Amino acid sequence: MVFKGASHAATRLLGLQEFKAAKTVKINPDAPQKNARFLTLEARKTLLVPMPRLRTGLFNKIVPPLGATKEILRICATSQGIKEYSVPVGLEGKAQVDLVVVGSVAVSEKGWRIGKGEGYADMEYAMMVSMGAVQEDTPVVTIVHDCQVVDIAEELLGDHDLTVDYILTPTRTIKTDCKRPKPRGIIWHKVTSEMLGKIPILRSLRYKEKRAGKDVTLQDEHSDLANTKKPAALNQRATAENTRPQAAMGSAEIGKHCVEGDSLNPRLEGSGRITTVYLGNISPSVRVSELKCALREFHVSPLRLNWQGAQHRAFLDYKDKPTAESAVSSLKGLSLGGYPLRVELAKNQRSKGQVEINSQK
Question: Does the pLDDT of residue 11 top 90, yes or no?
Fold first, then answer.
């Protein structure tokens, strides 16, 4: 809901040296920040807006039409305009954000912030840190009503909570001089499997960090480990396997579920239910074993994998359409070898057990 004076509060951005110097500004998509988005576009800066609830990616880059008038820029700053005048920016987009603008439910003059409770602003910032889009000194601004500036007990804050450097209200510009550090990346032990399931790009980032050797154990996985009593030798073996680079893992385990080759598995022929998923834009440097490891990591092992690396593509067979659609959803936003995969149901599906090669490139 837009608070009274939100538009005027946003104009205080124009007085910030950090805004004047910024080339790229990330602003949340909520209504109270609509004028902030307009002012950013009017100043001819690059505007990045997080995708709602991070369902399909991380950012939308707003691209107004050439010669856009103020009226068109105001439309671009709306939720409808974001849909019509934007292009997605994923993990490999190499975005460099110079200023971050977020909303808040409450904020203190010390810069301590409370959001809606869903944690998306905190998660967005942590993901930007992990992908190198923001630095420790990247300023964070929140735009709120004066009544939202309150005292906040420090014990209400966690190490994953985002703090702010400036508070803009209809009557004041507050520089917080906040000393509390901002998140230094994703704190995986506070991420749940449920959250991972809802945010495809988070799964992709976790896969990337796991391959880099980082501990990406989730909150509920920690609980499982605590409740599981294993011999010490087995625990050491599990730790070694978890920290081993994924690209070096063999494909034997996933091979139990995937039959690589050009011929259709005889068990599947004639079933009339096989649904194929198309993977395109596969990097020339990616090997089939690496793709198999990714499929296992994302729990979307197909009945059969048809690898066509020379054409930078692959086809995955699933037992039915719902299973295939679930795989598409899980793999959206995944990047391998620096290339974001194109993932969709294959245009040409098999019928009567016959193999049809998808003509997509």
Answer: yes
- Per DSSP, helices labelled H in 89-177 are 120-130
The pLDDT tens digits for 78-121 are 989 988 998 877 666 567 899 999 999 999 999 999 887 666 77
Q: Where are the alpha helices (DSSP H) in 107-263?
A: 120-130, 193-198, 200-211, 219-227, 232-243, 252-255
pTM beyond 0.90, yes or no:
no
Q: How many angstroms separate the CA atoms of 285 and 291, rounded?
A: 11
Structure tokens at 111: 């810069």
> Vertex 229, ends 224 and 235: CA angle to 5°?
85
Place of tokens 């203190």: 108
Ranges assigned E (strand) in the chain: 24-27, 46-50, 59-62, 86-89, 99-102, 106-107, 113-114, 140-143, 166-168, 173-175, 275-280, 304-308, 313-318, 335-336, 339-340, 342-345
Rounded Cα distance between 54 and 175, Å, is: 30
Lowest mean pLDDT among 111-115, 255-259, 316-320, 334-338: 255-259
Query: Between residues 199 and 270, which one has the greater pLDDT?
Result: 199
Q: Are 306 and 318 in contact (CB under 8 A)?
A: no
Both structure tokens of 62:
């707003």
Sign of the Cα pseudo-torsion (8, 9, 12, 13, in order): negative
CA proximity to 123, closest of 197, 199, 181 = 199
Q: What is the DSSP letter of 337?
A: T
- Parallel/antiparallel/unpaired status of strands 46-50 and 59-62: antiparallel
